[in-house]
Design a protein that fits this description.
Number of strands: 3
Distance between the termini: 20 Å
Radius of gyration: 22 Å
Oligomer: single chain
Shape: globular
Helix content: 55-70%
Length: 487
């Protein structure tokens, strides 16, 4: 029997995402001081975290409280971090999920891997997160052969580069991305399949929905919206279908409960009011009233572009070369236009609904808080919706038909590979020496690196090769399937 190259894809994906797991130090994710403290304090181990003077604070490891010593200074490497990590001494901090701003599920699960060896715990959590993503995506790929183009394109076009960074990070936004992207596709299959496939897809939908709703309050609301869109896409007036809706209705109620009990609901209603930071400039003149609304409405696509690398990675301080957002956006638009060629009223309603939400939520939150685009609302907040939008567009690509020519496929794949290798190299350079050190060789002048037997250059080269091979195999698989009818 001839070996199928597609079987190598999960391994290659593990290596490619694993490179991102090593590409940044402890605390490199946005607000990681908050998220790591919340994770360590979700344990019952008094060695890792102790009760504070109030319900709203804790005695947490000082190394975690001050973990982001390099934040907002792109020329500063991560060598400011301790050479010997320890959970002692502890300091009193109120910066953590002690007032239930976020749902507790993500921190509770990640706390299983929290220990006294902080770097080892952090890397373990990152690999658990990326393994969840790869495992769920692989299962969807094999369970839904007629939807493989949807599974592949929805992830390839919407996760470059911010999605890759978050999925392999310690930030709960990674779960929001994985959860939404998994839940809506799994629910689509669950409502259209029969037998054992329906049971397994129902389980994947539950897991994806719980991951998203249990990670962020806004993602919990996205779960409800995704369920509504899938119901519009698949609705039938049959007894079997109506009985199948029981599961998504239960998960919608659970998601709403996570949303209602999350402190993030206050930011959604009242806005950030100047909270947060940005690596991109807002308007020079303060605006209010209709002027502020109009400014935000006209500039909200700038937030979307951050998903494709227009904004910085990490603490928004790792700026990427223009080739990254240009190529990533081009791939999304190209695949999206092909998907638009085949349209029905159900998918049109779904697409319009997602676009309206992508406009309405950022504009409302910013305007309500008196903020302008560039402050407060970050691209990672709306990334799950971009994944959903990309999936709805890819749904229009017809399996078993020639959707792309050979040269188009090659150009799409090349653009994705360029995005990956440039973004990964810049992200590594940002932390191993700071961006003030020129040169392609990441091993020269090394100031920070993990205690591992391989170098930053090895991570970049191996990760880039693995990603290029993965993209080549996937695109070849999808392109070759256009010559035959997918079962």
């Amino acid at each position: 029997m001839r070996f199928k190259l597609v079987l190598l894809v999960p391994v290659l994906a593990f290596v490619a995402l694993g490179a991102w797991a090593f590409a940044s130090p402890v605390g490199a994710g946005p607000d990681d001081d908050f998220h790591l403290v919340s994770t360590w304090c979700a344990t019952d181990d008094p060695k890792l975290c102790q009760s504070g003077t109030l319900e709203s604070n804790r005695y947490a490891p000082a190394a975690l409280v001050h973990v982001a010593c390099f934040a907002f200074d792109a020329a500063a490497s991560a060598d400011c971090q301790p050479s010997h990590w320890s959970v002692t001494p502890t300091v009193l901090t109120a910066r953590g999920n002690f007032s239930h701003e976020y749902p507790p599920l993500y921190y509770s699960v990640m706390s299983i891997f929290a220990g006294e060896d902080i770097p080892l715990s952090v890397v373990t959590m990152r690999f658990v997160n990326l393994a969840l993503f790869i495992g769920l995506t692989s299962l969807l790929f094999w369970l839904m052969p007629a939807r493989r183009h949807l599974v592949v394109w929805s992830w390839l076009i919407a996760t470059m580069p911010l999605g890759l960074f978050l999925i392999a990070s310690n930030n709960p936004s990674g779960w929001a991305v994985t959860g939404i992207g998994t839940a809506w596709v799994a629910l689509l299959g669950y409502l259209q399949c029969r037998g054992w496939r329906q049971i397994v897809l129902g389980a994947l939908f539950m897991l994806g929905a719980l991951m998203a709703a249990g990670s962020r309050g806004d993602a919990a609301l996205y779960v409800v919206g995704a369920i509504g869109i899938v119901v519009i896409l698949t609705f039938e007036r049959t007894r079997r279908y109506l009985l199948s809706l029981i599961l998504p209705l239960i998960l919608a109620v659970v998601a709403l409960a996570f949303f209602a009990t999350s402190g993030q609901i206050g930011a959604g209603v009242n806005g950030f009011g100047g909270a947060g930071s940005s690596s991109v400039p807002a308007a020079e003149t303060a605006l209010s009233g209709f002027g502020l609304l109009a400014y935000n409405l006209l500039n909200v696509p700038f937030i979307w572009s951050g998903v494709f690398g227009q904004w910085g990675l990490g603490w928004l301080d790792t700026s990427l070369p223009a080739v990254v957002p240009l190529a990533a956006t081009a791939v999304f638009v190209a695949v999206g236009f092909v998907g638009l060629a085949r349209m029905d009223w159900r998918r049109l309603v779904g697409l319009i609904g997602v676009v309206l939400v992508l406009v309405a939520i950022p504009v409302y939150v910013l305007t309500q808080g008196g903020d302008q685009v560039g402050v407060g609302v970050q691209p990672r907040y709306i990334l799950p919706l971009i994944v959903l939008l990309g999936g709805l567009l890819a749904l229009g690509i017809r399996p078993g038909h020639e959707s792309f020519s050979r040269i188009q496929v090659v150009l799409l794949g090349a653009a994705l590979v360029v995005c990956y290798l440039v973004a990964l190299e810049v992200n590594l350079r940002r932390y191993v020496t700071g961006i003030d050190e020129p040169g392609l060789n990441l091993d020269n002048g090394l100031e920070w690196w993990w205690s591992v037997p391989f170098s930053p250059m090895t991570v970049w080269v191996v990760g880039s090769i693995a990603f290029a091979a993965m993209v080549a195999i996937l695109i070849r698989e999808l392109h070759s399937s256009s010559a035959r009818r997918v079962s």
